Amino acid sequence: MRKVYLDHNATTPVSPIVLEAMLPYLKDIYGNPSSIHEFGRIARKAVEEARAEVASLINAKDAQEIVFTGSGTEADNFAIKGIAHALKNKGNHIITSCIEHHAVLNVCKFLEKEGTRVTYLPVDNNGIVDINELKKSITDKTILISIMLANNEVGTIEPIEEIASIAKEKGIILHTDAVQAAGKLPIDVQKIGVDLLSMSAHKIYGPKGIGALYIKKGIKITPLISGGHHERNRRAGTENVAGIAGFGKAAYLAEKELSRESPYLVGLRDYLHEGIKKKIQEIRLNGDPKKRLPNTLNISFKYLEGESIILNLDLEGVAVSTGSACTSGSLEPSHVLVAMGLDAVDAQGSVRFSLGHDNKKEDIDYVLEVLPPIIDRLRKMSPLYKEKK
Amino acid sequence: MTDQAHLYSEKVMEHFRNPRNVGEIKDPDGIGHVGNPVCGDIMELYIKVKDGVIVDAKFKTFGCGAAIATSSMVTELVKGKTIDEALKISNRAVAEALGGLPPVKMHCSVLAEEALKSAIEDYVKRKK
Ligand SMILES: Cc1ncc(COP(=O)(O)O)c(C=O)c1O
Ligand code: FES
User: Fold this and answer.
1) What is the pLDDT of residues B93-116, one digit of tens each?
2) Which family does the record assign (chain A) (predicted)?
3) pLDDT digits (tens, 9 = 90+) for A98-110
4) In what order do the strands lie in the sheet with A66-69?
5) For A316, which of A95, A222, A378, B101 is 20 to 30 Å away at the CA?
6) Is residue B1 domain-resident?
7) What's the gap in Å between B106 CA and the centre of ligand 2?
8) Domains in chain A, ordered, with CATH?
9) How far apart are CA A310 and CA A351, in angstroms?
10) Is B4 inside any structural domain?
11) How far apart are CA A314 and CA A371, in angstroms?
């Protein structure tokens, strides 16, 4: 059976070039980058070269502004908890949005229990953060704004430059979760004017379990993990050298391929969208039609529930997801779709197709062949469909 | 998401893939219509009764894989049962007949049990 992987927002396969770049650090080059002998120095060189590649991906001024972490989730935790702690004498108010990844939302919920005040900004029907609400929520106690660059479920791209200029004017630190955006969109942290930015290697054909936080020079932040002097005292723990080398290579490749890959993915994604529109009635595109990640297509199939669609596609060898991979164990409809104003049924019936550079037109044709009969069969089974026929 | 599939037993997947008794019964003797307050899923169950015995059952379900599989299983279980016997079918019995359900999905089998109870109630009401 044909296997079609369309769940790249959950994770991507490690690129063969990335794997090649990692292998030496799992075999012969085992030195500790903190050691001063040659074994250590070679490992250190790999870490610093990777740092420069990751810095270049987002156009950071200085590679030392990149701190490697154990995941995108850790980068989010570090940014938010680190600023909340470092600035606790200045204020205790954080502004974020309703559609953040749980790596941000649950950090905010945790801080709320410790007495931090958090504002969760609403979004419009396309998932774009309400800028007026943002302006209104700012107080003299606001120390941090954390808004994602692009949403993982629907792909909507947030107006981060506009948010940055507001934050700058008020002297508030701005963090952005760019885990889905880095490598898929051109990012220039100097031009945006963002203070902290989270990334993760496994979304860009790098390994899992390695992320990074960009921390603009001069920003005071409390480390999340205490210990040795690694990462200039900002993240203790002997570096994951192979993971870092892989991340560096993945960042290099993403930057090099971006201008070619992005239109390719848009073309393939829109081909899928058009095909679905042609073959299946009563669907709804979720997310901003234009300001959207090149690879992401989130569709609600009316009268149906997402899991039953996904399981059926899985039986045909097609991997997609509902909402985010981490919430598929939960029962509530996606918090993102609910925040965008979808009713419960539409939110339940959503499927996310997230494409990657290995996908071919034939893969999409295969999906367009197997999907319509599945939808048809499930709709015949749906008590909601009958009522509207 | 493949995770979820792994959590489902062979039997659940088998019923999910080939659900039995999908559809409506033209002139049923009882209809059950229930919604699941936990997840918003919906099930409709139709029964045909002859001399106190359920001779046919069909369903329509808007729900997850477990909801579809339990709907299918409950229609299989009730056929040939007397009303009294059918009333004794619990959600646990349906889940067990499917080789068990993952803990987060146990509530889905409640939907099947309630749809059955509701169809029988409707049958009793109509008979009066
Ligand atoms: C927007 C966003 N933030 C954070 C994360 C977490 O990253 P990681 O899986 O590296 O912990 C993800 C992916 O799961 C994501 O999509
Ligand atoms: S999650 Fe709703 S019935 Fe299973």
Assistant:
1) 999 999 999 988 888 899 999 999
2) Belongs to the class-V pyridoxal-phosphate-dependent aminotransferase family. NifS/IscS subfamily.
3) 999 999 999 999 9
4) A66-69, A211-215, A196-200, A173-177, A142-146, A93-97, A117-121
5) B101
6) no
7) 9
8) 4-11+258-388 (3.90.1150.10), 16-254 (3.40.640.10)
9) 7
10) no
11) 11
- Residue A388 pLDDT exceeds 90: no
Number of other CB atoms surrounding residue B126 within 10 Å: 12
Rounded to the nearest whole angstrom, what is the distance from the C-alpha of residue A170 to the centroid of ligand 1? 29
Residue with CA nearest ligand 1 atom 16: A152
Q: Which whole-number Å values give the CA distances from B32 to A35, B46, B118, B120, B123, in the listed order?
A: 72, 6, 4, 7, 9
- In sequence order, the β-bridge partners of residue A354 are A7, A296
Torsions phi, psi for A42 (to 5 deg): -65, -40
Query: Is some CB atom of chain A closer than 8 A to the CB atom of B124?
Result: no
- How far does A318 lie from chain B, in Å, by closest CA? 10
Question: Is A119 one of the annotated binding-site residues?
Answer: no
Q: Does residue B105's CB lie within 6 angstroms of at least one atom of ligand 2?
A: yes
Q: Is A64 annotated as a binding residue?
A: no
* pLDDT (mean) for A233-244: 97
Name the closest-CA residue to atom 4, ligand 2.
B108
In a domain, B2, yes or no: no
Q: Identify the residue whose tokens are 């990462």.
A: A231
The whole-model pTM stands at: 0.93
The position carrying tokens 């603009």 is: A216
What's the pLDDT at A244?
98
Q: How many domains does chain B have?
A: 1
Q: Confirm whether A326 is a catalytic residue.
A: yes
Enumerate residues 6+ apart whose C-beta is below 8 A from A228. Answer: A34, A236, A237, A238
Q: Is residue B64 part of a domain?
A: yes
Those of residues 38-77 in B touching chain A at CB distance below 8 A are 38-44, 60-65, 67-68
> What pLDDT, on the 0 to 100 scale, is given for residue A326?
46
User: Would you say A175 and A79 are in contact if contact means Cβ atoms under 8 Å apart?
Assistant: yes
Q: Is B105 left (phi over 0), alpha (psi -120 to 50) or beta?
A: alpha
pLDDT score at B38: 67
Token pair belonging to B81: 């049962």
A216, A62 contact by CB (below 8 A): no
Q: Which of A7, A328, A333 sits opposite B4 (nearest CB)?
A: A328
Whole-angstrom Cα distance, residue B70 to residue B114?
A: 11
User: Does the beta carbon of A296 sit less than 6 angstroms from any atom of ligand 1?
Assistant: no
Contacts of B57 (CB under 8 A, 6+ apart): B21, B25, B45, B46, B47, B48, B74, B75, B78, B79, B119
Which domain CATH number covers B56? 3.90.1010.10
Kindly state the average pLDDT of the residues A120-125. Answer: 98
